[in-house]
Specification:
This protein has about 220 residues and is of the alpha/beta class. It contains 9 helices and 8 strands.
Length: about 220
């Protein structure tokens, strides 16, 4: 029996930090605030757009939950949908997904990025034909590491078994909360050493993925 494969997006399938950095700085600079470094913005990625906006406001010396929040959130999400040039695939992703899809694996993306920008990024990198389902950070009332997004994906895919694949501490916690095996891509946005992160198996090259996934499938 093949498990459903449920992927995180940013830091797992695509390097989105350049795009997020560009959009974040555009929003800040237009309002007269200082631009941030790539590394600063990288540290804000992974917990959804509301978290990102709060971090940007805090960096600008503003109340993260104050009156500017809604305007900046709307502007950020609007730009996310069109300013997609900075999103790039990690090496080997397309080929790995094509192989898995050809073998009949059902695949989904669950991301804390809002759904419309997530779909735009997926289309930009040419993966729109790879997934049976995409759920974004605004698709459900909760976001990862709450497990409901992963559970909902598994339900919609009609899968008895599932494997969760991600790159970060949030993803590791999500997998634990969902009681699913966790496959850790080590080249993404994690801050914790690999050996200190709970995971079932890790990989650093998408050429390894097919062999890893086969081990979760019953003969």
């Amino acid at each position: 029996m093949r498990p459903a494969l449920i992927f995180d997006l940013d830091g797992t399938l695509i390097d989105s930090v350049p795009a997020i950095h560009s959009v974040s700085n555009a929003v800040l600079v237009e309002r007269g605030y200082a631009a941030l470094s790539v590394e600063e913005v990288r540290g804000y990625v992974g917990k959804g757009a509301p978290h990102l906006v709060r971090c940007l406001l805090q960096s600008a010396g503003q109340d993260p939950d104050g009156p500017l929040f809604e305007d900046i959130y709307i502007e950020l999400v609007k730009r996310y949908e069109t300013e997609v040039a900075g999103n790039t695939l990690y090496p080997g992703v397309r080929a790995a997904l094509e192989t898995l899809k050809a073998e009949g694996y059902k695949m989904a993306v669950t991301t804390n990025k809002p759904l419309a920008p997530a779909l735009a990024a997926i289309a930009h990198v040419g993966l729109e034909d790879m997934f049976d389902l995409v759920l974004g950070g605004d698709s459900l009332p909760t976001r990862k590491p709450d497990p409901e997004m992963v559970h909902e994906a598994q339900r919609r895919l009609g899968a008895e078994k599932a494997v969760y694949l991600g790159d970060s501490e949030v993803d590791a916690e999500t997998a634990q909360n969902a009681n699913l095996p966790f496959v850790l891509y080590t080249e993404g946005y994690r801050k914790t050493p690999v050996h200190d992160m709970p995971h079932t198996v890790s990989f650093n090259d998408y050429k390894m993925l097919h062999g890893i996934i086969e081990k979760f499938s019953c003969p």
